[in-house]
């Protein structure tokens, strides 16, 4: 409410006497205050005196007056303030009128002194006018704030984007708007321009929707014209609209597409690339529609092979592709804005690879090859290089050579096609002169693995003289009669050479001879025939020895090879006697195990002629058999085949001996001796016998027989049982093979015996054979039935219909009819119970009712099992029995009932896990324990309550299962859930389960267990150093407390730089800043504290880093007020005269220039060096005056400053003289006349 202020309110009281006889004093009084104290109700404004009988102050228009008239003694009156003044009450309009009027009424009587001769009362009225000057106590305000404005990012700089004129008002009487300012949020982008009262927000920097801020929040202040002025704030939200200033761009620079060749199906089909072609408009707010086209590279030989779907970017082949013509297209892909295709576009590259179709097989150049190589070619010798081609491309054209050479002599390089020698050891022309190698190629990287046709490479080996001649025998024995005539042929030596041609031609010569044999015998060098040169009987020599060489005849004699043989020539005298055997005829015994080739008889014969070279010969065998032979020279008889006595036990051989002229024959009788080489043999694979159980020992089970084809002891057979178990129960006669029992057998213990019997002969190394024997034990009825359990227990629910209640099972160890069992109740109430005699099923005959016979809850029965067949056992046994107890079970016919329908509990949220919350109770009126004690559980086991609490199924106690948190995010404030009580599940009838439910309400009380938390642990803010105290620095801190009733307060700690509005969270600057004061930091780290209102308050903290931003508020300062330099004249250009230095307290970069006085003689560098541009001349000018300007155009980071400052300094350059001029006479000639005889007189001064 506006207050009357003595210093600012003028009261004018005008009392005017309307009647001339009234002594009514008029007052015009101005009151001035000596202090700034407000005038309160009851304050005396002024007083006056009057002789009026009565003076009244009448309110205007019936309103309560603001002034009060108080009467004192002696006609004195006070006018006092009766109430506080509110201009809105005086003039309840938008803009109050600053005045009020009160009527002052004067009533008086005529005086007795006669001065006024009236005899009646006179009423006089006058007005008291109080002029009120308004106190500026109302701040201006914005209408319809906050404000929103959307501008296009392409808005030109200097454009007015918003005008506040007419959007602010002031309720004060004299209120007016002096101007508007941008307090914060402009970030240098906007400025308030034009007339102050207009409030024009003008754009001063270019906008960028795509890379800069998209929203600006300007804090606008309005100030009134009052004294002192008052201000208010409002927010202007400026939102950028995207302008079309960006080209569309592809999401990738390169796209790939692979298409198969020669596929008609791809023509006019759409294909997506990898990655899929996509582009977007960089003007994200507009996001104009883009389209695609192919710009270049999509044709070949004048044919366009591709197009692109303008909207989807799918590539469309227009023709069948052929990889052999062009295997790759590099296409320039273009995207453009549909609404501006000529100005807004960009490019990318599309690479289309034509994928080869594997439609060609590799082909080897020739269908066959013939090549000749030397037979002694080394390993890896290059035989032949094969050429092949595959007309496909890429991996389909990659193939390898393969060679098929069964002998392994040759191989081929898979990549080069070089056929080479693999195993030179096999290249022997004399063994094999021609080789055939199959060669083919096969693709290695294609899926089809196409293979070429087979090509045959025929390789012929050329001969090398790598074989020496070889005689057929190393030694030769020839005989010649002593009566042989001259030139008689004695014998021929023969040597062969495996080589070919001249390498295989052999020539013979005698190298050495004994007893002058070279003169007695001649040798044909070509045929190797040895013949006599002369008669051999005179003189007679019985033996000659020759050494004969055989040498081949190669082209180069030095390469020849040779061999030698020894030739023995025996000279025989005339043969006149026949040979005869010594010891004939012959009888010999040979074991049938004699190895083939073994000699068993040495025949000896003699000849009276003295001949030693007798020849033995095998003639025949009886029975016919090529089982023997005889060494023709030594006479040893040996075996050719294995002998088998069981087939033939004797042979008769016929042999002969010859001396070349006479033949003599003899017989050899051979007896084959037996060897144990045959196994005994059983006539059957398995013996099967039967024997009845419980017979006395010694019963014959059966006989086992085996035969042996050997003879003597080798054929004698012995029998043995190979099983230890069977040998205890059975005896086997080792000679006869009779099998008997050794004890009484029990089928129930062993019903069948399986064992092996061994038959072995009597040889030194015996031979044996096994046979399987099976003995089945025949059953007799020697066992009684036996129950699987001695006792049984079964429950029968009352009121159940008669029927089966239990299946009893007895077992009999006997088999077949001997195991048939009959069941009977041998003891018990057969009127209530019965049993099926065949299968042992126990059943009830009546319906039980405990309400009628409650005491009969338990029955005992004895069940007997016996055989229907007669007992044959030697030992009499009792039939099996079992005891059965039958329990009559109470019927569950009562439902449990909760003691309350709803249970309510209250707990604190900090209740410990495991603590008891409360208990629910249900009762059941059934009699049995099983039916009368309910069990409890959650109706919804997946409910939030079931996850937080656990319910004891037996007691109904509810306990805490997991921690409770009333606060967010858990928000466990209240739990409502349903519990179920159920009686025990009946054994036989699940349909009579009884369930009952109750509702449980659990209320969670809040605990102050959460400290306040700030929205961020760390805040950063930049503040310009010239920001005024009290300014909102543009950072709002927020804290929250998850507890329910807590209220927060915030305060900064650590430094009194900022103060925080505890309600809004706005941070306000509390001290003035100066970035350039080096004694004060440029960065502050503050701690912000949030405190909740809990009984034990909890706190949260956050850190704020405040970076003080430098503002260019200082001018460069030179280190001198004036500079003086001296330089000698004639110094060369570039000479450093001196150096100036200026420092900028803001730390900005200082630049120098000479605006005045530089001419073409001086220059200053940016390091402050003052240099000469040209030489100075002392004689022309001895002093130069310059002005140097230092400017802080750039910040320390190199950025151009908006408002640079500069400083001028005066520089005086003094030029020093140098002796660079010769003396010069004033005139080139002087004339003087002197008289003769003149002495000591100055004639001339030059």
From TrEMBL:
- Where is this gene product found? Cell membrane
Signal peptide bounds: 1-22
- InterPro entries linked to this entry: Cadherin-like_dom (IPR002126), Cadherin-like_sf (IPR015919), Cadherin_CS (IPR020894)
**Example of a GO cellular component annotation carried by this entry:** plasma membrane
The entry lists its GO molecular-function terms as: calcium ion binding
Which keywords appear in this protein's UniProt record, sorted alphabetically? Calcium, Cell adhesion, Cell membrane, Glycoprotein, Membrane, Repeat, Signal, Transmembrane, Transmembrane helix
Q: Record keywords: NAD included?
A: no
**How does the UniProt record describe the way this protein sits in the membrane?**
Single-pass type I membrane protein
Any single biological process term in GO: establishment or maintenance of cell polarity
Q: Where is the Cadherin domain?
A: 33-142, 143-250, 251-364, 365-471, 472-581, 582-682, 683-787, 788-898, 899-1014, 1015-1118, 1119-1225
Q: What is its main location?
A: membrane
Checking PANTHER family in the record gives: FAT ATYPICAL CADHERIN-RELATED, PROTOCADHERIN FAT 4
What's the protein name?
Cadherin domain-containing protein
- Organism of origin: Ridgeia piscesae
């Amino acid at each position: 409410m506006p207050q009357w202020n003595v210093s600012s309110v003028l009261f004018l009281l005008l009392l005017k006497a309307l009647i001339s006889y009234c002594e009514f004093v008029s007052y015009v009084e101005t009151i001035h205050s000596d202090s700034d104290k407000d005038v309160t109700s009851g304050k005396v404004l002024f007083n006056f005196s009057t002789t009026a009988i009565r003076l009244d102050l009448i309110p205007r228009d019936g309103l309560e007056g603001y002034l009060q008239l108080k009467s004192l003694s002696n006609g004195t009156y006070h006018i006092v303030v009766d109430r506080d003044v509110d201009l809105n009450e005086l003039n309840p309009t938008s803009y109050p009128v600053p005045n009020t009027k009160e009527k002052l009424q004067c009533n008086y009587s005529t005086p007795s002194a006669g001065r006024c001769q009236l005899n009646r009362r006179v009423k006089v009225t006058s007005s008291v006018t109080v002029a009120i000057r308004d106190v500026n106590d109302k701040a201006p305000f914005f209408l319809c704030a906050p404000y929103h404005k959307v501008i296009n990012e392409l808005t030109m700089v200097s454009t007015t984007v918003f005008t506040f004129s007419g959007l602010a008002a002031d309720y004060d009487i004299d209120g007016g708007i002096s101007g508007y300012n941008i307090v914060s949020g402009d970030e240098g982008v906007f400025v308030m321009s034009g007339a102050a009262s207009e409030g024009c927000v003008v754009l001063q920097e270019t906008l960028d929707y795509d890379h800069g801020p998209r929203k600006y929040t300007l804090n606008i202040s309005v100030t009134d014209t009052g004294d002192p002025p008052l201000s208010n704030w409002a927010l202007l939200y400026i939102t950028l609209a995207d302008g079309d200033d960006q080209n569309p761009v592809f999401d990738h620079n390169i796209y790939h597409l692979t298409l198969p060749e020669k596929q008609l199906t791809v023509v006019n089909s759409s294909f997506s690339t990898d990655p899929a072609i996509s582009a977007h408009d960089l003007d994200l707010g507009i996001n104009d529609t883009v389209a695609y086209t192919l710009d270049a590279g999509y044709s070949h030989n004048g044919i366009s092979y591709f197009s692109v779907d303008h909207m989807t970017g799918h590539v469309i082949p227009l023709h069948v592709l052929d990889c052999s013509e062009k295997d790759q297209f590099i296409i320039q892909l273009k995207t453009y804005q549909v609404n501006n295709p000529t100005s807004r576009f960009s490019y990318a590259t599309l690479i289309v690879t034509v994928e080869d179709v594997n439609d060609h097989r590799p082909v080897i150049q020739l269908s066959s090859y013939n090549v000749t190589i030397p037979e002694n070619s080394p390993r890896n010798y290059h035989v032949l290089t094969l050429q092949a081609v595959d007309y496909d491309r890429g991996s389909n054209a990659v193939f390898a050579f393969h060679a098929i050479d069964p002998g392994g002599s040759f191989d081929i390089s898979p990549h080069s096609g070089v056929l080479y020698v693999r195993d030179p050891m096999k290249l022997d022309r004399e063994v094999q002169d021609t080789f055939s190698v199959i060669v083919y190629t096969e693709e290695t990287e294609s899926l089809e693995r196409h293979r070429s046709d087979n090509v045959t490479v025929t390789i012929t080996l050329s001969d090398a003289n790598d074989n020496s001649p070889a005689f057929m025998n190393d030694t030769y024995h020839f005989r010649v009669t002593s009566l042989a005539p001259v030139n008689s042929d004695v014998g021929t030596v023969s040597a062969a050479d495996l080589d070919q041609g001249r390498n295989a031609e052999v020539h013979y010569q005698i190298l050495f001879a004994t007893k002058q044999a070279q003169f007695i015998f001649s040798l044909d060098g070509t045929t190797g025939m040895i013949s006599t040169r002369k008669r051999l009987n005179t003189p007679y020599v019985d033996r000659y020895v020759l050494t004969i060489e055989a040498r081949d005849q190669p082209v180069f004699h030095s390469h020849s090879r040779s061999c030698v043989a020894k030739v023995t020539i025996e000279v025989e005298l005339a043969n006149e006697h026949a040979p005869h055997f010594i010891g004939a005829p012959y009888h010999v015994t040979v074991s049938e195990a004699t190895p083939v080739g073994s000699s068993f008889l040495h025949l000896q014969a003699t000849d009276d002629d003295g001949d030693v070279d007798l020849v033995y010969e095998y003639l025949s065998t009886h029975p016919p058999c090529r089982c023997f032979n005889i060494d023709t020279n030594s006479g040893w008889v040996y075996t050719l085949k294995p002998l088998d006595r069981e087939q033939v036990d004797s042979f008769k051989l016929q042999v002969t001996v010859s001396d070349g002229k006479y033949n003599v024959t003899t017989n050899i009788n051979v007896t084959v001796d037996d060897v144990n080489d045959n196994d005994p043999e059983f006539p059957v694979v398995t013996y099967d016998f039967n024997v009845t159980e419980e017979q006395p020992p010694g019963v014959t089970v059966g006989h086992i027989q085996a035969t042996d084809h050997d003879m003597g002891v080798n054929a004698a057979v012995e029998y043995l049982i190979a099983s230890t178990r069977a040998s205890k129960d059975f005896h086997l006669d080792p000679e006869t093979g009779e099998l008997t029992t050794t004890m009484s057998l029990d089928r129930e213990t062993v019903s069948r015996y399986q064992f092996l019997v061994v038959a072995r002969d009597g040889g030194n190394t015996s031979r044996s054979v096994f046979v399987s024997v099976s003995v089945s034990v025949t059953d007799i009825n020697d066992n009684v039935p036996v129950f699987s359990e001695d006792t049984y227990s079964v429950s029968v629910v009352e009121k159940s219909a008669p029927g089966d209640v239990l299946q009893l099972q007895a077992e009999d160890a006997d088999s077949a009819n001997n195991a048939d069992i009959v069941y009977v109740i041998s003891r018990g109430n057969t009127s209530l119970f019965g049993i099926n005699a065949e299968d042992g099923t126990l059943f009830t005959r009546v319906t039980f009712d405990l309400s009628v016979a409650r005491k009969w809850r338990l029955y005992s029965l004895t069940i007997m099992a016996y055989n229907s067949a007669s007992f044959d056992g030697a030992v009499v046994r009792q039939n099996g029995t079992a005891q059965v107890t039958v329990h009559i079970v109470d019927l569950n016919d009562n439902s449990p009932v909760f003691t309350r329908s709803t249970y309510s509990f209250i707990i604190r949220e900090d209740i410990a896990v495991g603590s008891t919350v409360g208990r629910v109770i249900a009762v059941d009126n059934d009699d049995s324990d099983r039916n009368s004690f309910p069990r409890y559980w959650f109706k919804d086991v997946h409910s939030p309550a079931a996850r937080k609490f656990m319910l004891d199924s037996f007691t109904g106690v509810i306990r805490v299962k997991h921690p409770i948190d009333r606060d967010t995010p858990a928000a466990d404030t209240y739990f409502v859930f349903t519990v179920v009580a159920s009686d025990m599940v009946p054994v036989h009838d699940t349909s009579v389960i009884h369930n009952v439910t109750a509702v449980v309400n659990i209320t969670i009380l809040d605990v102050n267990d959460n400290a306040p938390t700030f929205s961020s642990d760390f805040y950063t803010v930049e503040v310009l150093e010239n920001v005024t105290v009290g300014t909102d620095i543009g950072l709002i801190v927020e804290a929250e407390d998850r507890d329910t009733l807590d209220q927060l307060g915030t305060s900064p700690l650590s430094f009194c730089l900022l103060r925080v509005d505890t309600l809004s969270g706005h941070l306000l600057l509390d001290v003035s800043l100066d970035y350039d004061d080096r004694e004060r930091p440029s960065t502050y780290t503050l701690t912000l504290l949030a405190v909740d209102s809990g009984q034990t308050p909890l706190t949260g903290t956050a850190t704020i880093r405040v970076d003080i931003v430098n503002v260019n508020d200082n001018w460069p300062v030179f280190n001198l007020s004036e500079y003086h330099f001296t330089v000698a004249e004639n110094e060369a250009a570039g000479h450093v005269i001196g150096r100036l230095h200026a420092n900028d307290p803001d730390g900005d970069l200082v630049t120098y220039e000479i605006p005045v006085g530089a001419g073409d003689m001086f220059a200053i560098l940016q390091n402050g060096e003052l240099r000469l541009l040209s030489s100075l001349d002392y004689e022309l000018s001895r002093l130069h005056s310059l002005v140097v300007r230092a400017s802080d155009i750039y910040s320390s980071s190199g950025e151009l400053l908006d408002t640079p400052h500069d400083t001028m300094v005066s520089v005086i350059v003094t030029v020093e003289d140098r002796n660079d001029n010769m003396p010069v006479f004033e005139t080139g000639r002087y004339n003087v006349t002197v008289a003769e005889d003149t002495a000591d007189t100055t004639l001339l001064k030059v």
